[in-house]
Amino acid sequence: MRTQSPSLQGSSGFLEAGWTTEATKNNPYTLDFHLTGWAGQQKGYALAARFNYQF
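The structure corresponding to this sequence follows.
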C-alpha cells in the first residue's frame, strides 16, 4: 500500500494567551491560567490552570 505524500498547502493559525500572578512575602500563592487554540486542518483548544503555594 502507498501512503499519500505530505502537502504544504493550506493555512494554519495558533494563539496563546495567559495570566499569571507572582508570589510575594505577604501572598505566597500563585495562579496561572493559559488558553491555547489552533485552527487550520487541525482545530482545537487547550485550557490549563495551576495553583501553587510557595513556602
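The two ends are 59 Å apart (CA to CA).
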